[in-house]
Amino acid sequence: MNLTKMTIEEMCIMTERQLFDRKSARVSATALATSMIAFANADGGLLAVGIEDDGRITGIDAYTNNVNEIYRVPFDFCKPSIMIETEIVECIDWEGKDNHILLICIPQSNELHVNHRDEAFLRVGDKSKKLTFDERLQLMYAKGERYYENEPVYGSTIDDIDMKVVAEYCNKIGYRKSPEEYIQQNKKYIIDVSGRKEMSGAAILLFGKSPQLFFERARVRFIRYEGTEARVGAAMNVVKDKIFEGRILDLVEKTIEFVRSQVKEHTYLGADARFVTEPEYPEFVWKEMIINAIAHRDYSIKGTDIQIKMFDDHITVESPGTLPGIVRLNNMREMHFSRNPKIAGLLHEYEYVREFGEGVDRMYFEMKQAGLPEPEYQTEGFMVYATIKNKKFLERVSAVYEKDTPQDTPQDTPQDTPQDRILVYCSEPRSKNEIMAFLEYKDIKNFTKRYLKPLIQTGRLKMTIPDKPHSPNQKYVAK
């Protein structure tokens, strides 16, 4: 079973990172449990046992007893147990002798794992971070072991529920008892807290008379800018700023109705001599971005709201919260996980969430059918950013390249390398995704390694936010 494509030499010289760590075969069971738990609670990872921190190969052959203990770690020192995969690989150790190293593949888990002392860890970069109580709770929400929408809302009572709204929902789903009975008998909307009857977060957000009384930032803010980027101060270019509040269904309906009024349409004469009208973005795509943000945002984050930022050439939806469960940027087209299943369930009943799990993949299909770049997703801190671009973006990119490319220079001349094109295109600040779209390059990892990093390292390209290299607002400009 081949658990990794890395060579042993690469494991020795590679810097320890988010998905990789090396350990001596002398490592204690408790120390190894910390690393396994941290990997499982994060994105998974690979442990190479038998390689020292400095990269020397000491192997496992001389440490049979300790290696046997290592095999027991995921079962005896991790709660719940972690289902690892192992592989023993032949090697030559630092003394020139035949030896072996042990590779341990730890999968990403949808459960929260702790050690025998009930301590939880999370892999952050090359470290195993011990979680505080609040951080541990946040991770449990993210993994779906607990749902924040099920937590009691302090100070709330059944009087804070709008029974007319509940009655409408009961009629929608064919529930024949009274709305009061629905709230009292279903989905744990009422929670007993030390003798007090408090409403759950889902009950307030879905049926509350005034949800923002308890969740002040559970709202959507729409900002429209003139131009292609946000400016501040005297150059501020905000032309529309509107806030939507209310229950979850209100947020969805009001926001979609307003954004529809802001999306422009283009009319042209088609091939069959008939006029064709097209919106600048496929409606399914921008609606799905809004619905996903409202349905899956982390409502335990109370310091910010969902923001929809519309520019001349793109729309970005910013949603509080990390990607939930085991959903990651590289699997979000196939993987589905609902952070707020009760909220998603209600939106499904109202046909805003049509088929669980199909939305993101269909967004890519709709954008491709419209001849537009793929949706772009980024994560930073506790925010998820979703961006779509329209044809103005493509026209702007094409115009810049045509303007800066001499007409008598063949496009396949040796001087017209990808690096040259990047430098010409980056005569003004550009994001990584803009540069990739310009070059029609799909592999972000290879693009960064082959083109972007060398240009930065040689000083020909610089970052606009050098102290935050992974910022979603990062752009690159030619020196």
Features:
single chain; alpha+beta; six-stranded mixed β-sheet; four-stranded mixed β-sheet; flat
Description:
It is a single chain. The chain has 479 residues and is an alpha+beta fold. It has 16 helices and 20 strands. The strands form seven sheets. It has a six-stranded mixed β-sheet. Strands 1-2-5-4 form a four-stranded mixed β-sheet. A two-stranded antiparallel sheet has the order 3-6. Residues 408-415 have low confidence and may be disordered.
List the helices and strands and how they pair.
Layout: H1 8-13, E1 20-23, H2 29-41, E2 45-49, H3 64-76, E3 78-79, E4 85-92, E5 98-106, E6 114-115, E7 121-124, E8 127-130, H4 133-143, H5 163-173, H6 179-185, E9 190-193, E10 196-199, H7 201-207, H8 211-214, E11 220-225, E12 238-244, H9 248-262, E13 265-269, E14 275-279, H10 283-296, E15 306-310, E16 314-320, H11 341-349, H12 359-369, E17 376-380, E18 383-389, H13 391-404, H14 418-425, H15 432-439, H16 444-457, E19 461-463, E20 476-478
Parallel strand pairs: 1-2, 11-15
Antiparallel strand pairs: 2-5, 3-6, 4-5, 7-8, 9-10, 11-12, 13-14, 15-16, 16-18, 17-18, 19-20
